[in-house]
Amino acid sequence: MPDGAQAVLHVEGLKTVFKVRGGEVHAVNSVSFDIKPSELLGVVGESGSGKSVTMMSLLGLLPSPPAEVREGRVMFDGRDLLKCSPKELREVRGLGVGFIFQDPMTSLNPVFTIGFQLMEPLRRHLGMNKTEARKRAQELLELVNIPDAGQRLGDYPHQFSGGMRQRVMIAIALACDPKVLIADEPTTALDVTIQAQILELIRELRQKLGMAIVWITHDLGVIAGIADRVMVMYGGQIVEQAPVRELFAHPRHPYTRALLKTVPSVLGKRAAKLNVIEGQPPMLIETPASCPFRPRCVHAVERCARENPLRRPVGNGHDVACFRDFDASGAVT
Amino acid sequence: MFNFALRRFLIAIPTLLIISLVIFMLLEAAPGDPLGDVPLTVPPDVKEKMRAALGLDSAWYVRYFLWMKQFFWVEPLNLVDYVWGTDYAKGMQRVISFQSRQPVMQIIAERVPQTLTVVGMSYLIGVSIALPIGIYSAYRQYSWFDQIGTLVSMIGFSVPTFFSGVVLIIVFAVKLHWFPSIYDTTHRVTDWASFLKQVRQMAMPVMVLSLYNAAQISRFMRSSMLDNLNQDYVRTARAKGLTERVVVLVHVLRNSLIPVVTVIALGVPTIFGGAIITEQVFKVNGLGQQLITSIHSNDLPMVMTLTFIFAILIVTFNLIADLLYGILDPRIRYD
């Protein structure tokens, strides 16, 4: 990771609220982060922790209503995306920022050919004509290692397997050479061998193209294998952020530590039961005034109920939103 | 695809033969006597002769096969004769109406144009206003436009045409004198003025029927759009930076049209069937009206032939709907 480089995407105090019957759900609360050029940022957290919503909010991809991005700044290419008009935002989508979604089975339009869907962003953003776009589309399919690319442009999504469809999705996201690629659980719907192939492909593409990647997942194994830096989200906020080695070696936040403990080990005696984090994730019906993890935290103290901890740096590019300090063995200091 | 179409076409033949037999047996079992209107003063032996003249004295299967021969062999030959001026069908017995003693096909040919112009036009108008309304209602779900659209479809769907037709007559014909309340079948369009007259006399029946058709189809269109608007591929299309226009009118619409097109295709036979009640209300003497009068007077060959033609149309458009489905949706392959 090139240190000190200018961030390509800078997010500050992002806050997204869903209006629901009888109230609001505060899905994203004061989220701030940076992505540097050609960095791979992993975002982990359990379902409903606000990972996807945060990334969707950046480019206004959430259906509104019910979603509303209430506060914050998203600086990209020298402007605030949250203040952009829908037209300017459409210019950024696909051109500056590419998206890959979770389920490749449903993320492609079933009634159009792969070629058509791949050529769409090329013609829209780069103003290519049909022949140019076709040529580029074929190159893109070759880039994501789809055999017989020229032939397959005329095929429909149902003629591809799940892994191949995700490759097509990656090709679409990379069509206009974006600076940032946001991958929203791109391997969750795939089986493990296909998942490994996709990870390998992403590693390869990163080296070739050098775009920054935000990789959303709930699979810590994937993060350990691919990310440069990790953000852990809980209850709509970032609770811990660190370079990947640092995070796995010295997890600071009780949630991260608990999360790491839930990963079953393949070595040693098989545990009788899987480790779980007791309790339920918070409901987020208002802006959290206390630490959102407190009800499930074994180290909670009285102060945790009074105020919501801010992220504080603890060295080595590591920061954590917790009042308490833990040493390497996990004991409270 | 071709094999599928051929197979379906071949299956349609026995289906239609069975339908024809069922229609014939139903008419046979129905109460009523074609000679019921003959005065009581006519002596019984004369009545028997009249019955024999209509062919009613022979057994049902003889009459059924005679009808089959006339419908499938003599009538097509007559059509050939009519088109190319030959005389293959000379001297062969055609399907004759009990009521008017005219060939049934001739009466149908006289009435088809009225039905097609009025009912067909209303279907066309109904569909072409229903699709945009359905699309916009779904895109702006629960907006005032959608709410009003829902209300109007409810009204169009639940108010029977004999009521809305009469209301229109009272308002536009009786009070405002804008449109004639009776459709003049003998009117011929020759110039601009007569064309305007034709438009005026068609206006009310077309309004009534297209409201009914549009109500139905716009609901289908709306719900089909709603099914697709929240799909993942729509999010992908937006993430590519496409304009809302392209997202909705290309990506979502193409998917949403698949079920709607089949509904529209299945509705086409009802055009030929005529709108029995609306035709009665506005005195459009089309096919629907003919069917009703024939049923009243026990004109068995007429009812049999008309009903069977409707059956053919329904089977045909079912087949067309299935084929359209295969063309519109690449996931469906008939191999």
Query: Beta-strand percentage of chain B?
Result: under 5%
Helices and strands of chain B: which structural class?
Answer: mainly alpha
Number of strands of chain A: 12
Main pleated sheet of chain A? 8 strands, mixed
Name of the CATH superfamily of one domain in chain B: MetI-like
CATH architecture label of one domain in chain B = Orthogonal Bundle
**Element order of chain B: H for helix, E for strand:** HHHHHHHHHHHH
**Quick one: CATH class of one domain in chain B?**
Mainly Alpha
Q: Tell me the quaternary state.
A: heterodimer
- Read across the widest sheet of chain A, the strand sequence of neighbours is 6-7-8-3-9-10-12-11
**Integer-rounded radius of gyration of chain A:** 21 Å
* Major sheet size, sense and barrel closure of chain B: none
CATH fold naming of one domain in chain B: MetI-like fold
Describe the structure.
The complex is a heterodimer of chains A (333) and B (335). Chain A has 333 residues and is of the alpha/beta class. Helix content of chain A is 31%, strand content 23%. Chain A is built from eleven helices and twelve strands. Chain A has helices at 51-58, 86-92, 114-125, 130-143, 149-152, 162-174, 192-209, 220-226, 244-249, 254-261, 302-306; strands at residues 9-20, 23-35, 40-44, 67-76, 79-80, 97-100, 180-184, 212-216, 229-234, 237-243, 312-315, 318-320. In chain A, the strands form two sheets. In chain A, strands 6-7-8-3-9-10-12-11 form an eight-stranded mixed sheet, with helices on both faces. In chain A, helix 3 packs across helix 4, helix 4 (130-143) crosses helix 6 and helix 6 packs parallel to helix 7. The model of chain B has no long low-confidence stretch (mean pLDDT 87). Chain B has helices at residues 2-29, 44-53, 60-84, 104-139, 144-158, 161-175, 192-229, 232-239, 244-273, 276-281, 287-296, 300-328. The longest helix of chain B is centred in the middle third of the chain and has 38 residues, at 192-229. The N and C termini of chain B lie close together (6 Å). In chain B, helix 1 (2-29) packs antiparallel against helix 12 (300-328), helix 4 runs antiparallel to helix 5 (144-158) and helix 4 crosses helix 7 (192-229). Among the domains of chain B are: 43-97, no CATH class; 111-164 and 206-328, MetI-like fold (Orthogonal Bundle), CATH 1.10.3720.10. Chain B is an all-alpha fold. Chain B contains twelve helices and no strands. At the A-B interface, helix 2, helix 3 and helix 6 of A face helix 8 and helix 9 of B.
